[in-house]
UniProtKB/TrEMBL annotation:
CDD domains: WD40. This is Heterokaryon incompatibility domain-containing protein. The keyword Kinase does not apply. WD repeats lie at residues 18-59, 60-92, 102-137, 238-279. Residues 777-864 form the Heterokaryon incompatibility domain. The keyword Repeat applies.
């Protein structure tokens, strides 16, 4: 008989039936925990089932119409249901409603589906509309997806692709593929409508998102498969049904299809060849079908008001004449038989490692392995194999950066299989999965079509993903490979699958999920059929070398863990049976190794067996054990029933209430859990024996936990705005309202309940929860038109306001923040009481810190249209405003949004400060280095450069040009609107110079300020970069010093050095600057007449010890000369402000060192850290003093003080003769007004 003629298995009796609904079952979904199922019915209810016991855990009521569609989120946390009235309800995992009945569609909601990351829910309706919901708020997000007018666009099914890239929608007349993030349609094709005008009824995706499966109505009752790269049909359709196929589903590995039909049958198909494997016959029409989470069973339901559970047939279920087609070698034979065959084959070696290093890797002596590989590299720098081998060892130590460096070095020397594999493993460890997959794909180019190497490479890729916590994907890959592997005699797939199940079992055991752990250990046991693993360990030592696996004890460990976990789950008979099974198959060597374990295990079994028999004396223990087991499987209702029985048996004991607290906490019923804990404390305190009373010391009072949480909240909110927008409710909340919202939140109750059981409060966890709850999003924007102020939104719901002017921007901000998962938002327009001077001053002084500590800053570019090209950010008016400088420097995480609130350049990454393109554009627009933009730190270092950043910015209020810079420099000063910008800027510059001693802020050209003549009147004076003076190279300096020693005595040089060393730092207070400097008296000022010069005047100036120079200024200067000297008390000076860096550093011209500048108190010469030879330092200083310098022109006032005469360009002066030290010895501190 040919394969095409071979009949399918006919199955008429289900393994189990779940009965209870009063009308047809319309939908079924299983939970990822493998223990629960939810069903929907035309009777208007949902039912939550325990799959293990077949019992109803909860009847979920709330719908007023027939329920047509349900969905369970991928993480198992949410349930969603829709009915014929167009209404939707969201439920938690325990069947408690999270929302009221929401009328969201105008016609039947026929289908629902969660996004792969469980953050969105799609609902499809007969009204031709699909809507996307945020699971954070259970509100519709974005614009609805309109699938077209008329009844032809009625929606029967919506399905997210596993990658999340696509949303497939089946309508009556076509299949539409949408980008759910942008709500943009990618393609539309007729699907089944092409064939006899059939309807498109149901959809399902393969796990890799590469194929879409569709089902048709009675006119085309087939299953068709579509290629997601071309959207063309692939191969022949699946044919066999005779009437409408209402639903299709794929098993977790994507190899089998199940279909439910009006013809009263469920068909099981093999995807690869479209063959029917089995037919499950029902007494009535079948409306829904799904696979169990492990793919071993099918659940189906329909007109019969019940759900049937069917076993997916294995080899023993298939007729004799089909064995050749469907047999699986790992089921038909034991691994031991394959091992005997495999032992004769040559292993597909992909590693090139010498025996000594290989043995070091196998025994776990990784330092020796690293040393050996390093020796090989040192001996031959082009040994690409040794670099790759060392990368593997670094990866085993989780040193991913070094592992990646070695892998890349190997590939750079010579691309190879081993190099690409090492790169893939390292990238997986760094969680750069996309790049890792590319590396493994490139590795496949080097296998030379060797099927064994190909299989081994795919397994290594799966293991690397598994180790990087991509466990579901890894298991899926191994299972698919096991099903489709080209060489059925290979053991590799079975060994890997067994080991991964072992790891999953250990993970489940860590979280007390005993039944789940038992399933994994059982799967591992079933895969390994014999105890002697020495040959396997040797045969597949590549897994030992690369990942440190212990294959020798795999069989023994799997069996022991299986027995132990069954015992801990309260499944005593199964534990005993598993133990007997192990002992029957263990060889003598294995039995000898586990003699101690065997003795302890049998003793434990005996004790539990005795307890189970003696029910009268130990009933509470039995119930307690079962409650713990059920809790481990998250079967909270059953666990709570057992707890109540424990309490009933022994009501005076604290133990039952301790257990009750744990169960209620696990069920997220935190208020009840806290009450149970209080009762437990009371039982302990009133216990008749002192021993029990002492147990009270192990626990803390709820008041202590509350106090610790309150302190943490206070610390968290100290650096937060006083007033925030609750994006979930749309209301403005002051500090008290924020705290009250937290106290009533699930997060607060969860942490309060969880901390009650610990003496050590572990404040880190409390801090993490509080920080996560109070995460705040700040908005950076440009004020335009009428912005909403505090009184416009106070005591109102933002979403309910008329969306005009700034209100629309405010609503969009809240919506975008809410969609991103942030509850709290802050915007300067309405979150500050502008009429309250105290609050305004506090807010402006705190804004930099608020932006700094925000979880995210959203930058709204109102003048950047959607889909803008690079460069639009640079041209935005936002980039001209003064306040936006600290708003983009302060945050650590920032995102730019276009006018429609879509990400700039469609960059959906979480932090645009990590975008090279966007940061480069911002650098070009602002002149601020991209590295500074990404990692800015406030402070007074580099003051002149920071002032230049703001020099071209504008503000609506003139004083704000200074106030906006307070945070950048890390200063807090009074806010005094009305003082004018000269005074505001003057106070800021005075503070910078006084606090830091950095006089670079005095380097400007323009007009003097009324605040102090040494300061500019406007920040635009800093727009031009400072004049770059010539520097002396380190090669030139020794020659110049040597030449100077022939004309300048060491004594005079040291005297000059000492006089400068005695100068104190500049002082600036009360608008008076005390400036240490070298002074050069001016002996002649003579005006030089230039035609057409009206605003500025040019003067020729002579000064003692300086070369003649010209100065241009808008001030008229008194002309004088040696023959006609100036009046007494009206002298002029050219001064060189003293910069201690000339004295303390041999590298004063190094820009970086110059800016890292703080003046200490004067140092004695012998303490100078630069050069131990004081005379050499003194000579070097003289050389530097002889270089050109930026000079200030000062005019003496009547009281003996001075004022700076501003110039329109830099005044560059130079001493006449560097050999004349005496000409530079007028060192003093001048008071400048």
């Amino acid at each position: 008989m040919t394969e095409a003629e071979q009949p399918a298995i006919q199955i008429t009796t289900a393994n189990r039936r779940f009965e209870g609904h009063k009308d047809s079952v319309s939908a079924v979904a299983v939970f990822p925990d493998r223990r629960r199922m939810v069903t929907a019915s035309y009777d208007g209810t949902l039912r939550l089932w325990d799959l293990e016991e077949g019992a109803v855990l909860k009847i979920m009521k709330g719908h007023c119409n027939e329920v047509a569609g349900i969905a369970v989120s991928g993480d198992g946390q949410w349930i969603a249901s829709g009915d014929f009235g167009g209404e939707v309800i969201a439920w938690n995992r325990d069947g408690e409603p999270l929302t009221q009945l929401i009328k969201v569609h105008s016609n039947k909601v026929f289908s629902l589906d969660f996004s792969p990351d469980s953050t969105f829910l799609a609902s499809g309706s007969f009204d031709t509309i699909t809507k996307l919901w945020s699971t954070k708020t259970w509100r519709v997000q974005g614009d609805p997806i309109n699938c077209g007018p008329g009844s032809g666009a009625q929606i029967f099914c919506v399905r997210y692709s596993p990658s999340g890239e696509y949303l497939a929608i089946a309508t009556k007349n076509d299949i539409q593929i949408w980008n759910p993030r942008k709500s943009q349609r990618i393609v539309k094709f007729q699907g089944h409508s092409v064939f006899n005008r059939g309807w498109n009824y149901s959809l399902a995706w393969t796990p890799d998102s590469k194929q879409l499966v569709s089902a048709g109505s009675t006119s085309d009752p087939t299953i068709r498969i579509w290629d997601s790269s071309t959207w063309q049909q692939v191969g022949e359709p699946c044919k066999g049904h005779t009437d409408t196929i209402y639903m299709v589903a794929l098993n977790p590995t994507g190899t089998l299809i199940a279909s439910a039909s009006e013809d009263q049958q469920v068909h099981l198909w093999r995807l690869s060849d479209r063959r029917t494997i089995a037919i499950f016959k029902h007494p009535n029409q079948v409306y829904c079908v799904t696979f169990s989470a492990d793919g071993k069973h099918i659940f189906s339901g329909g007109r019969g008001a019940m759900i049937s559970k069917w076993a997916v047939p294995f080899l023993e279920d298939i007729p004799e004449d089909q064995v050749s087609v469907l047999k699986d070698p790992l089921r038909e034979d034991t691994l031991e038989e394959h091992a005997a065959n495999d032992a004769q084959q040559t292993d597909c070696e992909i590693l090139a490692i010498n025996t000594t290093a290989r043995n070091a890797c196998i025994t776990g002596d990784l330092p020796t392995a690293v040393r050996l590989f390093t020796q090989e590299i040192n001996a031959d720098g082009n040994d690409y194999n040794s670099y790759a081998n060392r990368s593997f060892v670094k990866a085993r130590n989780s040193d991913w950066d070094c592992a990646l460096d070695d892998a890349l070095k190997s590939i750079s020397i010579q691309p190879s299989l081993i190099g690409c594999v090492s790169e893939g493993i390292a990238l997986c460890g760094k969680r750069q999965f996309q790049d890792a997959m590319k590396a493994f794909d490139i590795a496949s180019m080097y296998v030379d079509a060797d099927l064994n190497k190909t299989r081994l490479l795919l397994l290594i890729k799966a293991i690397a993903l598994f180790n990087a916590n991509q466990r579901d994907e890894a298991i899926l890959r191994v299972q698919v490979l096991t099903t489709t592997r080209p060489n059925p005699s290979s053991l590799a797939c079975g060994i890997v699958e067994a080991y991964l199940h072992m790891q999953l079992g250990m993970d489940a055991l860590d979280y007390a999920r005993h039944n789940e752990a038992a399933d994994h250990f059982t799967a591992a046991v079933n895969t390994i059929g014999f105890p002697s693993m020495s040959a396997i360990h040797s045969r597949y030592d590549i897994f030992v070398v690369l990942f440190g696996w212990d294959l020798k004890s795999l069989w023994q460990t799997a069996h022991q863990n299986r027995c132990n976990v069954l015992l801990r789950a309260g499944r005593l008979p199964e534990a005993i049976e598993a133990y007997r099974y192990m002992m029957d198959r263990a060889d003598e060597a294995t039995k000898a190794r586990c003699i101690d374990w065997s003795t302890a295990f049998t003793q434990d079994c005996g004790m539990l067996y005795t307890a189970a028999i003696d029910l009268d004396f130990a009933t509470d223990t039995i119930f307690a054990n079962r409650s713990k087991a059920r809790s481990g499987e998250m079967l909270w209702d059953g666990a709570l029933l057992d707890v109540e029985k424990v309490i009933k048996v022994n009501p005076s004991s604290y133990f039952g209430y301790q257990l009750k607290h744990a169960v209620l906490h696990g069920a997220h019923r935190y208020d009840e859990a806290i009450d149970a804990f209080q009762t437990m404390l009371s039982k302990l305190e009133n216990a008749p024996d002192t021993q029990t009373q002492k147990l009270r010391q192990q626990y803390v009072n709820p008041s202590e936990v509350k106090g610790a949480i309150q302190q943490t909240v206070k610390a968290q909110l100290d650096d937060a705005p006083h007033r925030l927008l609750d994006t979930f409710t749309g209301r403005l909340c002051d500090r008290e309202a924020q705290i009250n919202a937290f106290i009533t939140s699930t997060e607060y109750k969860e942490i309060l309940s969880s901390k009650l059981m610990h003496v050590d409060l572990r404040m880190e966890h409390i801090k993490d929860v509080v920080a996560m709850y109070f995460r705040c999003v700040t908005l950076s924007h440009r004020w335009e038109g009428k912005e909403p102020l505090l009184h416009d939104v106070q005591d109102k719901v933002v979403d309910e306001l008329n969306p005009v002017d700034g209100i629309m921007k405010l609503q969009s901000f809240c919506k975008t923040a809410r969609a991103a998962g942030y509850r709290w938002g802050w915007i300067d327009s309405c979150c500050i009481d502008q009429a309250n001077n105290v609050e305004l001053q506090t807010s402006l002084n705190s804004m930099f810190v608020w932006y700094r500590t925000s979880a995210l800053t959203m930058v709204y570019l109102s003048d950047v249209p959607p889909s803008s090209k690079p460069g639009a950010l640079a041209k935005s008016a936002w980039n001209t405003r003064g306040w936006t400088v600290p708003e983009f420097l302060a945050p650590k995480v920032i995102r730019f949004y276009q006018s429609d609130w879509t990400p700039y350049l469609d960059d959906c990454s979480p932090n645009h400060k990590q975008s090279v393109a966007i940061m480069q554009e911002l650098e070009d627009a602002t002149g601020i280095d991209a590295q500074i933009l990404v990692a800015f730190r406030p402070g007074m270092i580099n003051a002149r450069e920071k002032l230049q950043w703001a020099s071209t910015r504008v503000t609506a209020v003139e004083e704000d040009i200074a106030y906006s810079l307070f945070g950048i420099f890390g200063v807090q000063l009074p806010i005094m609107y009305g003082e004018k910008k000269q005074k505001a800027l003057g106070r800021l510059l005075q503070e910078i110079i006084a606090e830091s001693g950095d006089i670079t802020a005095l380097d400007w050209v323009g007009t003097s300020s009324e605040f102090n003549s040494c300061l500019p009147a406007d920040i635009t004076s800093y727009e031009a970069p400072p004049y770059k003076l010539p520097s002396i190279s380190e090669d030139e300096m020794p020659k110049l010093v040597s030449s100077l020693k022939s004309t300048v005595t060491v004594e005079s040089a040291l005297k000059m050095y000492s006089s400068l060393d005695c100068l104190s730092a500049p002082r600036f207070a009360h608008r008076r600057l005390h400036l240490p400097c070298n002074a050069f008296p001016i002996t002649e000022v003579r005006r030089r007449f230039i035609r057409y010069e009206e605003t500025y005047f040019t003067y020729e100036v002579k000064a003692d010890g300086l070369r003649d120079l010209e100065i241009t200024t808008e001030n008229k200067l008194l002309q004088f000369s040696r023959g006609r000297p100036a009046r007494p008390g009206r002298s002029f000076l050219l001064v060189r402000p003293w910069d201690r860096r000339l004295q303390l550093s041999d590298y004063a011209d190094d820009t970086e060192s110059m800016y890292d500048f703080t003046l200490p108190s004067p140092w004695p010469i012998e303490q100078c850290p630069v050069d131990s030879d004081s005379s050499e330092r003194a000579m070097r200083l003289i050389i530097r003093l002889g270089q050109p310098f930026s000079a200030f022109l000062l005019a003496q006032q009547r009281g003996g003080e001075y004022k700076r005469i501003a110039s329109d360009r830099d005044i560059i002066a130079q001493v006449k003769d560097v050999n004349s030290v005496q000409g530079m010895t007028d060192v003093r501190t001048l008071e400048i007004l």
